[in-house]
Amino acid sequence: MQKLSAWYRGSVLPRFVFLPFLVMRLFPIPFGIFRKGSHRADATKLCIEAGIHGWDSIEFKELYASACEYLDKENVQKIIIDKDSPYLAQVQLAIGTIKPTHYFYDPRTGSQNWIKGLWEAFYISLFLHANGIIPVVLLTDFGLRKWRTQSAVVTARRGVVITFIAAKEVAAIFPHHRIVGPRLMPLSVATLNLLDALASERLEQSPATAIFVGSLYEPRTSILTSIATGLKEQGHVLEIHGRKLGSPRISDQEYWANIVNASVILTTSNQTEMDESDWTWIDHMVYRYLEVIACGTLLVAPDVPGVNRYFTPGVHYAAFGTVNEAIEIIAQYLTNSAERKALAKQGSEKARALVCARTFWTGIDAALGPDSFT
């Protein structure tokens, strides 16, 4: 029975996404079912949705800023979703007013109820397709089945799904191959220049410090605790500047200052383990891979599938596979300033090149093919 349950959860249940996808894929949609004619315009217009609190996060600030740099500000519009008002009505009103060519959808924004969230995804998919609007879906947590299902429904006919997991690693549990991943986080050139300015005023820590900054969840919390214990035994300290999921974030200024002024930043790449998640053994390329390296601080992180597309272990950052390796690597670089700074400098130069090349957006553009932004 235990083997049967494991087979069901690890093989059958992850593929549940195929059924809603096929329903949406085969559903006949008369063109203009919601509006007369297409909303497609001569020039690209991109709408990006997020909740009120979402727009307060660095993630969405950088998504918007980098989109404005890539497409020009007048071609990018925020949709601020009020959770106390009907979600679909807000989306439909915004699209009817702006008449975009592309819509940036995030399953975290609408209802988090399984059934209602799936219904919203069906409606949005119908609405976008009937009006010739291309969906671009941000799927931050591929392992969560409800978000994965909504993402597949919205992109059943057109568009792409952006993920921070290597596409080939999850191809078996997703019903189409228009997956763009792993993607670096979107970081704007404006913020990159700010980080350069902060780095130029970096305060040399004595003794050198290692920190973790970010959300705390399992198995990440246990891994960090084990590494901190091992470093303490060697006379080093790992400062954990963490927050639980859903708790208030620190200010942007404090966040960037923590990263810039640290000697070493440690991160893990584990997916969140929840009752509604699966295939969580596949590591994902968290935002810290670009954030930390761009700050000119040494990153110590796992060598996740696909990261070599952007950064090379031992050249741009230090990679570990086990807790003991992480302890050994951090201790080594905390006591060797020259090696640490050399590796961090090489990483910073590569990160700058990637950001200035608009890597986040050019990758999406290429995947969109004839439906591209440009």
Structure write-up:
There is one protein chain. This protein is an alpha/beta fold and 374 residues long. It folds into two domains: 2-162, 3-Layer(aba) Sandwich (Rossmann fold), CATH 3.40.50; 189-356, 3-Layer(aba) Sandwich (Rossmann fold). The chain has 14 helices and eleven strands. The chain has helices at residues 2-12, 18-26, 58-71, 87-98, 114-130, 145-154, 167-170, 189-200, 220-233, 252-261, 288-294, 323-334, 337-356, 359-368; strands at residues 46-51, 76-81, 102-105, 134-138, 160-162, 179-180, 210-216, 238-244, 264-266, 298-302, 318-320. The strands form two sheets. Strands 2-1-3-4-5-6 form a six-stranded parallel beta sheet, sandwiched between helices. It has a five-stranded parallel beta sheet with strand order 8-7-9-10-11, with helices on both faces. Helix 4 (87-98) runs parallel beside helix 5, helix 5 (114-130) packs parallel to helix 6 and helix 9 (220-233) crosses helix 12 (323-334). The termini are far apart. 44% of the residues are buried.
How is the topology of this model organized?
Layout: H1 2-12, H2 18-26, E1 46-51, H3 58-71, E2 76-81, H4 87-98, E3 102-105, H5 114-130, E4 134-138, H6 145-154, E5 160-162, H7 167-170, E6 179-180, H8 189-200, E7 210-216, H9 220-233, E8 238-244, H10 252-261, E9 264-266, H11 288-294, E10 298-302, E11 318-320, H12 323-334, H13 337-356, H14 359-368
Parallel strand pairs: 1-2, 1-3, 3-4, 4-5, 5-6, 7-8, 7-9, 9-10, 10-11
